[in-house]
Write a structure and sequence with these properties.
The structure is a homodimer of 214-residue chains. Chain A is an all-alpha fold and 214 residues long. In chain A, 78% of the residues lie in helices and 0% in strands. Chain A contains ten helices and no strands. The N and C termini of chain A lie far apart (60 Å). The interface between A and B is large, with 57 and 57 residues. Chain A binds a DNA duplex (30 and 30 nucleotides) through residues 2-3, 6, 27-29, 37-45, 48-49. Chains A, B: Residues 27-46 bind DNA.
DNA sequence: TCTCGTTTTAAACGTATGTTTGAAACAGTT
DNA sequence: AACTGTTTCAAACATACGTTTAAAACGAGA
């Protein structure tokens, strides 16, 4: 039980601190202090800081992707050849994501911030790791989206998917400060789940936009 | 001429390196080496690394915001009370932005990457600096958008503006790698200007989406 | 040509980082 | 109770960082 506790508290501390400050700005001393373990524990249990970063992602993404894969298969089977509906796909994705941070909805925000960092911060090793590990599930998801948007050219669909990804990662990343801003500006805060609800019609409408301006 | 050259090459090197690796991951030694100047030059001319970061943003944003302010005033005058059109506003913004990196269109991508970093990376001093310095222009822009979307609730508009910001920053940030991906996946690359063209209908349609899913 | 303020330079400073080490503490087995 | 493999611990290691310093080089005005 001792080992699991140490490993778990390191992962918890690292997840939170990385999401708050970024990877380079978070030292192993920050992490081990917050986790209440010895400094050397990270290198003992994970091998290096890079490996710890990957482990933080794996702990969230592996169950999430397994879950998503099951859901995608189920949808595919239920459809039985018919054309899937876009908002349904998006809601499936968002609900799987919300479920992945099962203990607290705040966890999804934390992880989105990490995902944003993975893109923006150097960390080439991370991008390679994510691609190798979770690329196939993403491709399966894309096949469904493609089936749901037959009228889009491959090029438009490619770019619009990334517009959607950007809107999602950016706003869910900053959900904490954005809801604080919303509360200050208009007296109405929101939690992550509500932001996701607002996000879906925006994304669905954007993806289906006419080719010209409108 | 000597001083201007040193300052300018430091800013050029810093802008590029920051955008590639982030702030914390880029050392003053990296910057001064790339710029071909002495290590101490940064602290001599800018005072500190933080001040250098702010200077990099100021060099891009100050002319851009002055230009944008002029354009906004011109639109306001031309309207003379009538309701402005959304796609027109977005195109005005994008064209002002493209003009800001006047020498090369790649510059806009670099700056968007920096803007993304400013949000994600710690750098509280940067957010405060940007807010103080460029907040008013953003508010003026928001007034126009509000006038162009009278049917939206303040809450929906708030969130959708940030969805738009996210889609823009994210995709223009990663425009280099994304166009490479597009080229690999579908044999068709794009430059920044073309991505912006694809972005506008997506954003306009998302902002005007019905409140429910659609 | 000499002078004085500005700019550049090489070297050092203090600090913080990721990692390694070797001994101590622990837990399970015989 | 003694042994064994695993985990923790305090301390040290080498390295890289941002910043400072004091002297040298420079450039324009008298």
């Amino acid at each position: 039980m001792a080992q699991k506790d140490t490993v778990k508290s390191i992962l918890n501390a690292a997840e939170e601190l990385f999401s708050e400050r970024g990877f380079a700005e978070t030292s192993l001393r920050n992490i081990t202090t917050k986790a209440g373990v010895n400094l050397a524990a990270v290198n003992y249990h994970f091998g290096s800081k890079k490996a710890l970063i990957q482990a933080v992602f794996a702990r969230f993404l592996t169950p999430f992707c397994e879950d998503l894969e099951r859901e995608l298969d189920a949808v595919q089977a239920r459809l039985d050849g018919k054309v899937p509906e876009l908002p349904g796909i998006l809601m499936l994705l968002s609900q799987t994501a919300l479920r992945a941070g099962h203990d607290s909805p705040r966890r999804l925000g934390i992880f989105m911030r990490l995902l944003g960092l993975a893109y923006t911060q150097g960390q080439g090793h991370l991008r390679r790791f994510l691609q190798k590990e979770y690329g196939p599930v993403f491709k399966a998801f894309m096949r469904l989206v493609t089936a749901a948007t037959p009228e889009l050219s491959d090029e438009d669909r490619f770019w619009r998917i990334h517009f959607m990804l950007g809107a999602t990662v950016f706003t869910l990343s900053g959900a904490d400060s954005l809801t604080a801003m919303a509360e200050h500006d208009l007296g109405k805060g929101s939690d992550i789940a509500q932001v996701v609800d607002k996000l879906i019609p925006f994304l669905a409408s954007g993806l289906n936009a006419p080719h010209q301006a409108g």
